[in-house]
Amino acid sequence: MKKISFLLLFLVAIIAAGCYYNNEEQLYNCPVDAASTKYSTTVANILTSYGCTGCHVAPVPSGNIDLSSYAGVKVVAGDGRLYGAITHAPGLQPMPQGAAKMNGCDIRRVKVWIDAGAPNN
Q1: d(CA 9, CA 42)
Q2: Which of 41, 68, 106, 119 is the Cys-Cys partner for 102 at CB 3.0 to 4.6 Å?
Q3: What residue numbers bound the domain in which 68 lies?
């Protein structure tokens, strides 16, 4: 009887653990909306803070990707390379190179800006 009780308790614990999920907004407390996510005050600062503009800057940007200007960022935001690189998507060079992935809040801010059409604001 003890074995059956233990097995039943074990199965209930496994099922309960399988129902757990993380809500990124609750974990990182980073409410993000398109109205407050701007290129000039949010996205440009994120790219600079992770060192992206150290390598990807004119006149000879690494990988021919200029992240030091809105025009350059708009190109890679529009073709999916920016989001793919910062999320370390398969088939793309993970960025920032040689460093940990950006934190979830910063990735989310960039994604919200891209989804809003990557405006120059």
Answers
A1: 49
A2: 106
A3: 26-115
Q: Which residues contact 23 (CB under 8 A, 6 or more apart)?
A: none
86-89, long-range: CB within 8 Å, 24+ apart, which pairs? Answer: 86/110
Q: Are 32 and 114 in contact (CB under 8 A)?
A: no
Alpha-helical (H) ranges within 19-43 are 24-28
Q: Dig out the tokens for 17 from the structure.
A: 């653990």
Q: Whole-structure pTM over 0.70, yes or no?
A: yes
Q: Is residue 10 part of a domain?
A: no
Summarised one tens digit per residue, pLDDT across range 17-37 is 555 555 544 555 788 888 899
- What number of other Cβ atoms are within 10 A of residue 25's Cβ? 13
CB-based contact 75:114 (threshold 8 Å): no
pLDDT band, very low/low/confident/very high, at 77 (cuts 50, 70, 90) = very high
Structure tokens, 100: 């940990």
Number of domains forming the structure of the chain: 1
Q: Which two tokens stand for residue 43?
A: 């996205």
- CA–CA distance, 28 with 103 (Å, rounded to integer): 9
